[in-house]
């Protein structure tokens, strides 16, 4: 498998080109917006790092600098394409609970995200639930030194003990991640969506699913190593690696699938005005395991101190962000269709000669019966006058 040696961070122009190719809409800041019914609508973007464009540049500094929000995230691209009035409060690391509670970041505390909503909000997009599941911590615990392990994150004094991370999270026949999904994540998502509706009662809400980080069996390379590639070479980080064991790839994929189904189910349960935006199935061939030029999600690049991953690891790259924008674009247009032009109307047929003449500005004629009577009376008056003149002679 050919892999890239360098993180993919695209600036605004390149990301916009990717959107134009995938979405067929202009998305650069200088491009003319689409002539649709969307222009001027109030759009509020909520959610976590998958909405914030984590790892891409340039950064907006909004809502606080610690949110690592990119100016080329899909909310900004859609707003530019459709001339939307955007308020973007997406923030890396946000839980579903941060819809209603402040979020403390490394550089500032962000307000509860639903505070950006109002009865005037027309459009809302959101991703939520991944951080409630703790997927970043799960991924860190699953980093492996070989296709068969061991993996990190079990014991701080001797982290590389377990041969795979499935054995860490499945204890006594109980999958603790699946249990957390049911007990914590699902209620958090439900509460977050309810809070959005309460603050934006008139909005169309688009809940975006998470793209595939790991592949399904059909898109996993054959061979003893599977997807695995080394994260280190001579103790130096290898960019865009996929350091997960052959056992953990299907396990992690199953967890992703269950999270996606949970988000989808809670969107449906939220009722009218909520639309689920699928991304999972369509990205199975574009996971972090795919060849570099086919990825929508970045692989893992460790920081130089080897204690963390660089921003953007296991997150959508510029192509992946453009793909998400492309999934949303037709749904927005369908939710806010342009009004049909009015049909030409013919002038109504006159109901009387008076109406017909009124249309020409002439004085109306008397109805036929009254006109004949007037003529008869006029004739009689003339004859009577003539007799009076003769008698008087």
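Q: What amino acid sequence fits the structure above?
A:
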């Amino acid at each position: 498998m050919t892999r890239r040696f360098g993180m993919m961070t695209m600036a605004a122009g390149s990301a916009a080109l990717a959107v134009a190719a995938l979405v067929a809409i202009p998305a650069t800041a200088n491009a003319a917006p689409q002539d649709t019914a969307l222009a001027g609508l109030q759009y509020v973007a909520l959610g976590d790092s998958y909405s914030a464009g984590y790892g891409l540049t340039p950064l907006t500094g909004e809502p606080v600098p610690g949110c690592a929000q990119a100016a080329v995230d899909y909310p900004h691209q859609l707003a530019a394409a459709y001339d939307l009035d955007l308020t973007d409060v997406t923030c890396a690391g946000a839980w579903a609970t941060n819809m209603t509670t402040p979020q403390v970041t490394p550089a500032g505390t962000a307000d509860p995200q639903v505070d950006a909503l109002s009865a005037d909000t027309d459009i809302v997009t959101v991703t939520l639930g991944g951080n409630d599941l703790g997927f970043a911590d799960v991924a860190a615990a699953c980093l492996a030194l070989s296709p068969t392990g061991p993996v990190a994150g079990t014991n701080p004094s001797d982290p590389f003990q377990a041969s795979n991370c499935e054995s860490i999270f499945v204890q006594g026949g109980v999958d603790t991640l699946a249990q957390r999904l049911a007990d914590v994540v699902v209620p958090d998502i439900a509460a977050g969506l309810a809070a959005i509706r309460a603050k934006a009662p008139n909005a169309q809400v688009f809940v975006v699913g998470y793209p595939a980080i790991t592949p399904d069996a059909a898109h996993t390379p054959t061979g003893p190593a599977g997807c695995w590639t080394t994260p280190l070479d001579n103790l130096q980080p290898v960019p865009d690696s996929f350091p997960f064991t052959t056992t953990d790839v299907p396990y992690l994929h199953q967890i992703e699938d269950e999270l996606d189904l949970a988000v989808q189910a809670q969107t449906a349960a939220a009722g009218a005005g909520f639309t689920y935006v699928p991304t999972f199935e369509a990205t199975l061939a574009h996971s972090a395991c795919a060849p570099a030029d086919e990825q929508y999600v970045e692989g893992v690049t460790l920081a130089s101190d080897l204690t963390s991953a660089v921003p953007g690891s296991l997150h959508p790259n510029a192509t992946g962000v453009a793909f998400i924008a492309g999934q949303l674009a037709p749904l927005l247009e369908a939710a806010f269709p342009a009004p049909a032009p009015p049909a030409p109307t013919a002038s109504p047929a006159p109901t009387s000669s008076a109406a017909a003449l009124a249309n020409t500005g002439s004085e109306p004629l008397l109805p036929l019966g009254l006109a004949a009577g007037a003529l008869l009376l006029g004739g009689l008056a003339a004859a009577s006058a003539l007799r009076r003149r003769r008698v008087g002679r």
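Q: And what stands out in the fold?
A: Residues 1-30, 352-393 have pLDDT under 50 and may be disordered.
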